[in-house]
Every structure is written in structure tokens, then in C-alpha cells.
Amino acid sequence: MPSDRFLSLPFEQQIGQFFFIGLPGKTIDSEARELIEEIKPGGIILFGRNVDSPDQVRKLLDDARALVPTQLLCGIDQEGGLVDRLREIFPAMPSARALRQHGDLAGVRTLGSITGELLRMLGIDINFAPVMSIITQERSQLTNGLYSRSFGSSPGEVLGYTTVYMRGLQGTGCLGCLKHFPGIGAGTVDSHIEMPMVPLSRDDLLAQDLAPYIELFQRADDRVRVVMVSHGGFPNINIEKGTTGGLVEPASISPTIVSQLLRKEMGYRHLVVTDDLEMGAIAKQYEIEEAVVKAFNAGEDMLLICATPTTIRRGYHALVEAARNKQLSERRIQGSLKRIAATKTLAQGPRPLDMERYEKLANDIRELNKRLEYIYPGESHV
Q1: Which CATH architecture has domain 3-375?
Q2: What is the pLDDT of residues 247-281, one digit of tens each?
Q3: Domain residues of the chain, as ranges?
Q4: pLDDT recorded at residue 374
Q5: Among residues 16, 48, 64, 67, which one has the fewest Cβ atoms lying within 10 Å of its Cβ?
Q6: Which residues are marked as active site?
């Protein structure tokens, strides 16, 4: 989709492009319709609460697309294991950890390709996966919720499995998203609850968690088109000066992490999205009005607000007001609109919902699970 079209949108619709929002239920009822028509978002993200049947999911997204004047990106977190939004309508998908423990690179590619084809049939363009966290033996004792979601215990392992997964997923035309930059595997808590502090030095971060990102950006930049920034706190590289004791900002709203580290130092030039701005790591420190302005000015292109219609509206109107008051630069607005337009150009649109093919994919996942269960009983889904 040409970026000129986005740059010529009415002002309020330009701001709407920066939002990736959740919907309250399984249909476009009056509440969902009013929300979409008011925000005219750039994207919609689905959760388990939105899923009842393949036909229902496809209709939900088709109906949502019909309400906005521009192409709508539709996304989901479909990792497998603990984060499996489609488990009610499709066989449970194996976790990254189960595949890695099996050493099953072919299985990883199969998981990626099945996931991508399934999502395309349901009307979904972006899978917010894979998780790039490195979970060493020491980190495996932490309660950050990432243990089973990681592809490895070393940079090389994570890089190898991620590369194969992305080839399988994006080979179907479904975009992947590397997350949670710059790496929160060493965080001590789950960012759904509060901000995880990552006590790594800059050198350690570069040698460990950032190493797979650096390699992927350098050798396959044309394949990595979406990156999600975490809500992790990085006290050794990201202290806001001028405050008593120094204030650690979550990475997702920090110019040091988004604009300086990701964009300038690592040279990444494509779409950047926040993690959900309703998560405890943000909500316990910031009102949504402040969070969206800080995130956008940090260099984020799209802001995820995933649950509450009231919060989505508050965030949207705060960003509109900030733009009107020149708190957002015209250069930042145009830059993000161009990156969003470029991403939408890559989105190929839904495939036909072919239930015969759907059942074939379901059987392929069952076979993959059986293979993993044989090697690691009880491990295939977690």
C-alpha cells in the first residue's frame, strides 16, 4: 500500500494508524463497531476471548476490515505451548522448549509453516512470535514466565531455531515478529505483573541477548520486518539522568532503547511495536495518556493496547491531543506512517478458509505432538 495514501489521510486517521488494539468479544457487536469506527486503528490483535470457531474468527476479522478505510493489520500471539490463543479451535501447538529439547529443527520449520498457513486462512497477517529470550540454566530458575517459550540457552541456539521458524512462518506469507527486544530472559519477574529488571551490563547484553538480533538484522534484514520492544528495565544502560537516584524507564517507552540502540546502533529500519501498554510493567507506573506519548516519542511505530475499550480510547485521544499540541514531531509521524504502509504492503491478505486443508494442518500438528511426546512425555505442549 503506497505511503502517500497514509500521508494524505485525515489527521485523526493518521493517529489511528499507530494503534494495534484488542476487541472485547467474538463478534463485531455495537461496542466493537463503535470502538473501531472511532479509532480507525492500524491493527487488531486477537486473544482467546475472541476465538470460538474458525468461521467465527474469519468473520470477526472480515467484519472489522470492512469498517476501516485503509488496510487493517490483524495479529495474534500464536507461539505454541503456554501462549496458544487458538487452542479452543485447533490442536494444541508444541512449545519452543519442547522442540528445542528434541533438537527438532525440521519440527520447528513445520510449526512455523503450519502456524503461518493456519493464520492466513483465519485472516491474520502477523504472528507476534518468536520469543528471542535466552534461557540459561541459571535463568531457568527465574519466575518470569519465559522458561518454556525460549528456543535456547545460548545465542547460537536461539539464532538457529529462530531462523528456521521464521523461514517456515514467513514462507506462507504470514509476518513474524521478533520479541521482546532487547531481551528479558534475565528479568526476575513477569512483565504482565511489574517491570522486570534486567541487571546486565551493556557488554553482557551485546554478547548474549542482543547477539541473535544483531545477526538476524545483518544477514536477513529483508526477512525481519517487525520487532516488539519489551517493558523490561535495563538499569545499567538506561538510567534517566536528573532524577534522584536515577529513574529506570521500561524499554518500550525509552528513546535510549528504541531510537538509539535499536534504530541507530543496530540499524533496524522496519516496523517497531510496543508490548501491551496495559501490562502491569507500564500500568503500575504510568497512566495510559502518558505512556502512549512516551512510547511514540521513544520511536515506536505502533502501540498495543489489548484489553479495555476505555483505555484504548483514552490512549488514542491523548495521542491526537499530543499531535495537535506539537508534542509529536511531523517527522516522527511521517516516518512511522511510511513504515506502517511498507508493512501493510507485505501483508498479502487472507487466504480462503479451506476446512479440508484446515483439518490436514490439524493432523500435522497432532503428528508433531506425538513425536515430541514419545521423546519427552508430558513436555510437548508446555
Answers
A1: Alpha-Beta Barrel (3.20)
A2: 789 999 999 999 999 999 999 999 999 999 999 98
A3: 3-375
A4: 53
A5: 48
A6: 192, 275
